[in-house]
Specification:
Elements lengths: L15 H12 L30 H7 L1 H7 L5 H15 L55 H4 L1 H5 L32 H14 L4 H11 L61 H8 L2 E5 L5 E5 L6 E2 L7 E2 L2 E2 L1 H8 L1 H12 L1 H17 L8
Antiparallel strand pairs: 1-2, 2-5, 3-4
Helix pairs in contact: 1-4, 7-10, 8-11, 8-12, 10-11, 11-12
Catalytic activity: 2 H2O2 = O2 + 2 H2O
Keywords: Heme, Hydrogen peroxide, Iron, Metal-binding, Oxidoreductase, Peroxidase
EC number: 1.11.1.6, 1.11.1.7
């Protein structure tokens, strides 16, 4: 966890937050509409998931695990290894989990029977919200299209008089795991974002309390990456040049790594202790007033209006920064129902820790089926 490699240096000297994101994004594709997705078969290694915009840099996370996989071989599946690594990451940063259950069996090719949406561009969302749908024709070879009878023809027929997400999809845009962290279609409105969060997490089997616990718990650790303009970033793994050896998103900005990393385009560090469990997320969320700003990459994010520079720099211990948040973080404060839960977690650290532990276990195990399996 703390053996930082020169080819992909660890933020704050600890790979834990990166591995939490890897595990979360492996399991987080699960949706209740058809029971598909999830981390049960290790599909993050294959197209299209390995090339989703929301999975930028997770190719590096999996490569960091390669020595472990080489050592243990078939004794542990990739599917189990990715989830187990997320658990170990939490435990090395002073969080007590509910444990880990193994038994996920790898597949060795992409799942071709999962409908991820009919958009033809990354981060598109027009079709799933009924704003630009087109029927399948011969040119759509290889594109799975939702069956109206199976997946809710009524919702598919609605248009842009409301945000009605196509069934069985959970994510709001092609290539995202959940929602757009800048807000719906990039609109930095925390209340509008709360609508998307609630719908998406419900479709992934999470209630409001579990949703708040997962977002705040996950954002207790690590940072996002948006050091420079997105046009510095090259093609995803499936479209990258052969000489990159399975890596994608080659970054031409500065060193292309460390402090120059570009992942989501957002540049946010939530707490003063990004490699240690605690209440720092709540203290910053409720302890400051927030104003809209832009990341170095031009993405919408929020910075504390008041207070000093208390947030560490990931690679320069001599530097401090102001607290920052995502639009979707502010949803936990300004949505009335989320706010009730958030304040309770802020005032009761034990309840927060328990809720996050339960929600994390559910997130990472809900797609495994009964114990007998």
């Amino acid at each position: 966890m703390t053996d930082s490699k020169d080819w992909w240096p660890a933020d704050f000297g600890h790979y834990g937050p990166l591995f939490i994101r890897m595990a979360w994004h492996s399991a987080g594709t699960y949706r209740t509409g058809d029971g598909r997705g999830g981390g049960g078969r290790g599909q993050q290694r294959f197209a299209p998931l390995n090339s989703w915009p929301d999975n930028v840099s997770l190719d590096k996370a999996r490569r960091l695990l390669w020595p472990i996989k080489q050592k243990y071989g078939q004794a542990i599946s990739w599917a189990d290894l990715m989830i187990l690594t997320g658990n170990v990451a939490l435990e090395t940063m002073d969080f007590k989990t509910f444990g880990f259950a193994g038994g996920r069996e790898d597949t060795w090719e992409p799942d071709l029977d999962v409908y991820w949406g009919n958009e033809k561009t990354w981060l598109g969302g027009d079709v799933r919200y009924g704003k630009g749908g087109a029927p399948r024709d011969d040119k759509d070879e290889g594109v799975l299209v939702a069956d109206a009878e199976m997946h809710g023809g009524e919702e598919q027929s609605r248009t842009d008089d409301g945000r009605n997400l196509e069934n069985p999809l959970g994510a709001v845009q092609m290539g995202l795991i959940y929602v757009n962290p800048e807000g719906p279609d990039g609109n930095p409105d925390p209340l509008a974002a709360a609508h998307d969060i609630r719908e998406t997490f419900a479709r992934m089997a999470m209630n409001d309390e579990e949703t708040v616990a997962l977002i705040a718990g996950g954002h207790t650790f690590g940072k996002t990456h948006g050091a420079g303009p997105a046009d510095n970033v090259g093609a995803e793994p499936e479209a990258a040049d052969l000489e990159l050896m399975g890596f994608g998103w080659h970054n031409k900005f500065g060193s292309g790594k460390g402090a120059d990393t570009i992942t989501s385009g957002l540049e946010v560090t939530w707490t003063a202790t990004p490699t240690k469990w605690g209440q720092g997320f709540w203290e910053n969320l409720f302890g400051h007033e927030w104003e809209l700003t832009k990341s170095p990459a031009g993405a919408n994010q929020w910075v504390a209006k008041d207070g000093g520079e208390t947030i560490p720099h990931a690679f320069d211990a001599s530097k401090k920064q102001k607290p920052t948040m995502l639009t979707t973080d502010l949803s936990l404060r300004f949505d009335p129902e989320y706010a009730k839960i958030s304040k309770r977690f802020w005032e009761n650290p034990d309840q927060f820790a328990d809720a996050f532990a339960r929600a994390w276990f559910k997130l990472t195990h809900r797609d495994m089926g009964p114990r007998a399996r």
